[in-house]
């Protein structure tokens, strides 16, 4: 079947890119150690948190089994959503791949199914692996039996496939609609609509009281829709209409497959023309700065990141009443720096051109940095307007701008050390993970140092940190600019 041949091609591409990512023995050893550590920690955490549910069930409390299954299936659905978004954002776009296949005698369904199989398989495998690590120690220790474990993971897989199918169906329907109207940035608008709908569903359906009573009065929540089937197969009463549940499961998966037939094969991709009214100046420094602004502002990943950050900020403010007032306004300046993370990777292929044009290293570096600062200020203004949050005083505004400039420098430095590459489907995930591993301890170390240093010591300590950051930024860029090409 042609779809399976396409799937094999994609798997080979992913395997090739993984080989590029872990191309040395040191990298493979570090990856193996990190995986071993993560698995060990997951097993310990899972054993600690899920043991009480299973022990209560084995001691005769059947209600605890319902709560256990519902919570695990809900977690699996959340993981499915996260990985769906992560793969869509960080891996090469499906329709970029489909444009390469547009000259082959393939139907839209064959091409879409060829992409769907490895995508769904990868997400399902990752979610099952995480839940497996969390639960298998308890399953073995408590002796729940082979049938219990088999039906649990079988129905968990059905839940993952069901929720994945719903996400894919919504994404495809929005994508097809946008194409009908001829708008650019189809992926951006489709992801935006998907995230908004998911957040709205989560906000309206998440009710702790309902979840706790779902065992006795099932509420047909989509995040644990298959839970009654597991309870039924293990001899427990399930207060749910089983036949409609099965029919809805089948209908959702079938509709997702049918939607693949309507996603057209693209032969060209419409690009964004944001800031096209800005003319390129004659000055080298200004022309590079304008170029950086246009490239980063038109990048779909950056647009998606902006939307996700805006949704997160609105969620914090209006759902949890977290006001960005006073010193908290600095948070808005800090999150704008993420726009610099993929700057070096997006422009990496142009570095030999800059060298051929005899552009000085400082000209390239600081023009890009200034362009990113302009975009950061623009994002800060948009965040303030859209969340209706403004600095309470001029000193707070100055501090926020300083935080923004430092955040941009740190994210840009991280992007130099771990450059993002859109041709490598795993580099973005790896880079973001490494960034978190470095930033989290640095954050606590910095907070501890600032708490210990007070008064006049801060006047010396902070400029030293700023100088160190500038030297690291310059040194890292110099290393890439002169030796990496």
UniProtKB/TrEMBL annotation:
The chain crosses the membrane at residues 66-87, 113-140, 146-176, 188-206, 241-263, 303-322, 328-345, 366-390, 396-418, 425-446, 458-477. The keyword Flavoprotein does not apply. Keywords: Membrane, Transmembrane, Transmembrane helix. The keyword Transmembrane helix applies. This is Uncharacterized protein.
């Amino acid at each position: 079947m042609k779809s399976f041949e396409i799937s094999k091609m994609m798997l080979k591409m992913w395997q090739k890119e993984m080989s590029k990512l872990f191309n040395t023995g040191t990298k493979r050893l570090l990856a193996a150690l990190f995986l071993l550590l993560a698995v060990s920690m997951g097993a310990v955490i899972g054993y600690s948190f899920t043991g009480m549910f299973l022990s209560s069930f084995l001691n005769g409390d059947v209600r605890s089994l319902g709560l256990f299954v519902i919570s695990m299936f809900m977690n699996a659905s959340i993981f499915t959503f996260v990985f769906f978004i992560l793969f869509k954002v960080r891996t090469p776009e499906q329709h970029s791949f489909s444009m390469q296949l547009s000259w082959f005698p393939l139907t839209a369904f064959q091409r879409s199914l060829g992409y769907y199989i490895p995508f769904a398989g990868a997400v399902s495998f990752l979610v099952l692996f995480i839940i497996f690590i969390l639960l298998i120690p308890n399953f073995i220790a408590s002796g729940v039996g082979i049938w219990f474990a088999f039906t649990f993971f079988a129905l968990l897989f059905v839940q993952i496939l069901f929720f994945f199918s719903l996400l894919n169906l919504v994404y495809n329907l929005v994508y097809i609609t946008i194409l009908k109207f001829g708008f650019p940035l189809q992926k951006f608008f489709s992801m935006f609509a998907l995230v908004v709908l998911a957040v709205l569903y989560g906000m309206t359906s998440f009710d702790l009281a309902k979840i706790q009573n779902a065992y006795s009065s099932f509420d047909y929540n989509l995040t644990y829709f298959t839970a009654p089937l597991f309870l039924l197969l293990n001899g427990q009463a399930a207060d749910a209409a089983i036949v409609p549940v099965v029919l809805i499961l089948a209908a959702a998966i079938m509709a997702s497959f049918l939607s693949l037939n309507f996603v057209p094969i693209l032969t060209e991709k419409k690009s964004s023309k944001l800031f096209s009214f800005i003319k390129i100046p004659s000055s080298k420094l200004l022309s590079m700065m304008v170029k950086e602004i246009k490239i980063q502002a038109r990048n779909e990943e950056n647009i998606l990141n902006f939307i996700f950050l805006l949704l997160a900020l609105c969620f914090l403010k209006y759902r949890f009443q977290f006001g960005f007032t006073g010193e908290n306004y600095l948070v808005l300046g800090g999150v704008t720096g993420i726009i610099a993370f993929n700057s070096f990777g997006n422009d990496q292929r142009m570095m030999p051109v800059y060298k051929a044009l005899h552009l000085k290293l400082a000209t390239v570096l600081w023009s890009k940095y200034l362009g990113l600062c302009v975009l950061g200020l623009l994002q800060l203004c948009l965040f303030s307007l859209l969340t209706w949050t403004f600095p309470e005083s001029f000193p707070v505004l100055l501090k926020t701008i300083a935080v923004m400039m430092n955040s941009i420098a740190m994210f840009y430095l991280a992007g130099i050390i771990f450059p993002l590459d859109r041709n490598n489907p795993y580099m973005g995930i790896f880079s973001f993970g490494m960034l978190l591993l470095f930033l989290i301890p640095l954050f606590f170390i910095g907070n501890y140092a600032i708490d210990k240093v007070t008064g006049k010591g801060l006047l010396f300590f902070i400029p030293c940190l700023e100088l160190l950051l500038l030297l690291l930024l310059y040194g890292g860029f110099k290393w890439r600019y002169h030796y990496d090409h």
